[in-house]
Amino acid sequence: MPEALRVSIRPVAALLAALCVALSSPFAAGQDGPSTSTPEPQTDGQQPTFRGGVTYVSVDVYPRRDGRIVEGLTIDDFEILEDGVPQAIDRFEFVRVEGQPVDGDRIDPTSQADGDRQATDPHSRVFVVYLDRNNTTLSGGSAARRPVVDFLNATIGARDLFGVMTVELPAAQLVFARRTETLEDELERHWTWGRADRLSILAVPESPYEERLLDCVNYIDARVLETLPVERGGPGGPFGGLERLLLARHREDRLLNSLENLMERLGALRDERKNVLFVSEGWVPRGPLDAFRSVTLSQGALPGIGVGPGGRLGTGAVHAPERDLTWCDAEIQRLALADFESRFRELLQRAVEANVAFYPVDVGGLRTDRNARGALETLRTLAEATDGFAIVNTNDLAGGVGRIRTDLSAFYLLGYASSNPAANGRFRKIDVRVKAPGVRVSARRGYFAMTEEMAAAAAAAPAPSPPTTVDTALGRLRSLRDDAELFVAASVRAEGIDVMVELAERVRRGRSGGVGLDVAATGPAGQQIAARLELAPEERGGVARVSAPGMAEGRWRVVVRDPESGLDQHVDVELAAPELVGEPLAWRGLPSPRAPLVPAASGRVSRRERLRVVWPVVASGLAPGDVAARLLDRSGSALGAPLPLTESDDDRGGRAMVLDLPLGSLPEGDYLVELTAGRDGVSERRLLPFRVTR
Fold first, then answer.
1. Which CATH class is domain 14-93+100-412?
2. Residues 6+ apart with CB under 8 A from 86
3. I want to staple 502 with a disulfide (CB 3.0 to 4.6 A). Which of 180, 450, 508, 599 is the partner?
């Protein structure tokens, strides 16, 4: 029995719970046999949204021509049929994902529940890297290190999520994250995670269950052994072939159990597509072995003679208690008579129903061995049946995973209210068609309708809680595009709206002269106000005033456009006259008080800088004691003591509350500055979200 390998994991890497268990001793993960392990909790199947008797179905569609996503399609180019009946599409959106964001933009969820919640965003892609340890060799595991990490680094956008899983990790414990540093470190340190070589040579047990299973072989009569279709003699002694066969079938059973539970976990996570990067060298699912029906140890079979797991010769003197022989009978029969071919086909159907696409990556390299054909065919079938594709029998893994990245770079989001009101719990088939010629479509293939009980429970359930003000504020940071070149923020004042504009550094570097920006605001009743912002050659941003007599309260959309480059960006503002303080605007600059400040409309600030936040004071008699500022984390919890505020004149000739916050002590991540003001029974709360980068 090999000694347990203990892995030290940095606390920040919650996502590596999977990899930590997988790369540490299998014993650390607990017993793994069906009679000794605790069943993992089962989750309900995936269901579409149910609102007031109507089932609303979300469908993500990948139309491809010559292996690339077809862009420029309109809602009229698509047709959706549910069980053959055309449906009215009322949601249409094209989503392009920009990979390779800067490290500071990849912010991990705060917990497993937070990761699951963020995964419900249909604009986010979800990936699971599944390391198939039992069907990957030592060299294959080593070859997987660089392609897997490079794929994640190049693919995972600021809103995407990924998790890592092996057969040792219960699917219920799968954690989603965005940052890849710790995964890269663990794959580098524990490149020996593949273990297929060991089983092909020696039957080495790797858990108490496997030890107990192999111990059963010592009690099989030699005459019975002669009737079994297993190799005799060779490595491991006279029972080596039988031991390897039982271990192989047990581990195939565990793999299918693990993948089945993963399908349930991902199916319940969300309606939209989930992608599994399946790292393996493949295997061949086998049917039942009828010859084992005659193997019984508990009903008078003579004891056999053989080498036990400890390397000692066993005879009748080492008989186990009768109850152990009964357990041996049950487990040997269960494993030998299992129909893994049927279970594999059922797994494919579960993946389709859960809208999961498999992308197998064969890390065995180019192979001409006939024995490898069946294993590679299994990987191809896994991909083709689930709308993915397989990277097999190649030494160019980097190019292969690059194809996967291209395949998932963009998609269309469609939605419809089902015309079928029946609450019968049946599977409803979805067909998506595109009118453009030569287009191959992969999309969600269906869903299970609710039962009457589920529909009644959904109708009686309270309405979901609206997002908190903290969630709403942080949502602006998460919605920023990684490649945006123009950022806009706004502050409501008593006289109108202050619009802050920031140009990306790469844009400003390419402009030698000044920049003139057009600002246009449209009110709830269609009222339009125009303004102009002129930036000097050395300026990267500034503030424009949008103001006019009688501006109506309600939602205003402010659009900023650069006529020269065609860049434009907008921000929606809820115009309501503040009573005490206005919405904040932020600047950033080096820590020195003499350092120039630039607008921080993007919300991104380096740890090497300071953040300057300004709240315009509206109430004439507001005193410093009437306001307080705090730093909050992503959950809305206060960090440390109240922040020091100063009072100053603003650039409009009025008063302002000002905060200067150095950021050198803060880790990378999302934060908020909260200002509360209260006087004469009136209270107001203002939140400014910001993201600390390197």
1. alpha beta
2. 79, 80
3. 599
